[in-house]
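Input structure tokens:
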């Protein structure tokens, strides 16, 4: 295909948005055979099925999702251009789709996102939380503009993504106020046999903590292993256990979960990365979050 037919792309986009050919026909005031025929020509031109039928519903295929998210970005920017030609600032209507890994502390994520939200023309933020694998898949399918992760993608993703180190966080041990005094004494050896809630084993933070515990000769009583950072703190508070979180989040951890800092874990850090897709369309809100950090 030498040139993309944007009329066909637009019809496909309207069918995908509405969930059916009938919905697109009603919106566009066109006959169903017209939309069906144009959609069939578009699929033939690109050499890929974009929909599959599940019962009476049309469901996007994986390629369909990729095309849809490109189309969504293309026509959203076209809408911005129209507004700009009428005198409005395009910056005021730019959307920012962000995926935050569930292992990232929410107060840290908010602090990073505030770089864009506090700008003169803040974006319309659409934010979702999931595991790193799903967020990288969303990046590949253009379902999100930016993923905030605790580790850069694997080498296999380097050709399709770009990683930026946003922050390096000191980690501290937190616990209920009643346990602070007893565990602060003789810290960190006071952690031996103490009840703890840890991150899941495959996470970078867990790997660093396991190494630190081993070098200190500490064997805690592991009560739970939880990937979600907020659920981990909530479980620790509910079962009167200890857990680990960024030191900078101590105010939010105290207010929300009633957990206090017992001591800093020297030598253990958590790195936060912004991961973007390698794309030509630029979003100024992403640049505000990344700032002047180098791509990796």
């Amino acid at each position: 295909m030498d040139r993309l037919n944007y009329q066909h792309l637009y019809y496909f986009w309207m069918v995908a948005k509405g969930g059916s050919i009938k919905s697109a026909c009603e919106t566009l005031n066109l006959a169903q055979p017209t939309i069906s025929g144009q959609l069939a020509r578009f699929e033939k031109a690109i050499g890929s099925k974009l929909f599959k039928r599940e019962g009476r519903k049309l469901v996007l295929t994986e390629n369909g999702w990729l095309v849809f998210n490109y189309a969504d970005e293309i026509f959203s920017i076209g809408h911005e251009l129209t507004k700009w030609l009428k005198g409005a600032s395009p910056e005021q209507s730019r959307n920012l789709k962000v995926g935050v890994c569930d292992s990232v502390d929410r107060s840290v994520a908010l602090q990073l996102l505030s770089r864009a939200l506090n700008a003169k023309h803040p974006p319309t933020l659409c934010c979702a939380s999931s595991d790193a694998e799903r967020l990288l898949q969303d990046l590949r399918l253009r379902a999100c503009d930016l993923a905030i992760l605790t580790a850069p993608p694997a080498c296999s993703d380097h050709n399709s993504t770009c990683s930026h180190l946003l922050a390096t966080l000191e980690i501290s041990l937190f616990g209920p106020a009643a346990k602070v005094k007893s565990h602060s004494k003789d810290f960190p050896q006071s952690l031996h046999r103490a009840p703890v809630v840890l991150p899941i084993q495959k996470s970078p933070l867990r790997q660093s903590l396991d190494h630190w515990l081993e070098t200190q000769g500490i064997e805690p009583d592991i009560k739970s292993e939880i990937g979600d950072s907020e659920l981990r703190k909530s479980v620790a508070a509910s079962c009167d256990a200890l857990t680990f979180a960024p030191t900078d989040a101590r105010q939010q951890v105290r207010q929300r979960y009633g957990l206090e800092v017992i001591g800093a874990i020297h030598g253990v850090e958590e790195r936060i990365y912004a991961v973007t897709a390698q794309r030509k369309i630029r979003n100024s809100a992403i640049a505000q979050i990344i700032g002047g950090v180098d791509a990796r």
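The chain is about 45% helix and 25% strand. The chain has a mean pLDDT of 88.
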